[in-house]
Design a protein that fits this description.
By secondary structure, the protein is mostly helical. It has helices spanning about 1-40, 50-65, 65-80; strands spanning about 40, 50. A two-stranded antiparallel sheet has the order 1-2. Strand 1 (about 40) and strand 2 (about 50) form a beta hairpin. The N and C termini lie far apart (about 35 Å).
Length: about 90
C-alpha cells in the first residue's frame, strides 16, 4: 500500500509542472491578444502593429519563453495605464 501511495505522489509531482506550463502558455497567449488589441501603433501605411518590444514579447510567448513574455507584456500593459487580464 505504501508503494502505491509513493507512486501516486510521484506522479502528481511530475504532472504539476506540466499544468503550470500550460497555464503560463495560456496566460501568455491571453496577454498577447490583449497587447495586440490595445498596445498597437499606427504604421506609415495606416495599419496597426505592436512596438518592437511588444512584438518580441509576443514572439517569446509563441516560442514558449513564457517567463520573459509575461513579464514584458504585463509591464507594457501597466505602463499604458491598463490592467492585465486575470490569470485563469
Amino acid at each position: 500500500m505504501r508503494k502505491i501511495a509513493t507512486l501516486l505522489l510521484g506522479c502528481a509531482v511530475a504532472v504539476t509542472p506540466a499544468f503550470a506550463q500550460m497555464d503560463d502558455a495560456a496566460y501568455c497567449a491571453a496577454l498577447s491578444d490583449y497587447a495586440r488589441r490595445y498596445l498597437t501603433d499606427t504604421g506609415a501605411d495606416g495599419g496597426s502593429r505592436p512596438s518592437l518590444e511588444v512584438a518580441t514579447a509576443i514572439e517569446d510567448c509563441r516560442k514558449g519563453n513564457t517567463a520573459a513574455g509575461i513579464k514584458e507584456l504585463e509591464t507594457r500593459i501597466r505602463n499604458k495605464g491598463f490592467t492585465p487580464p486575470k490569470r485563469g
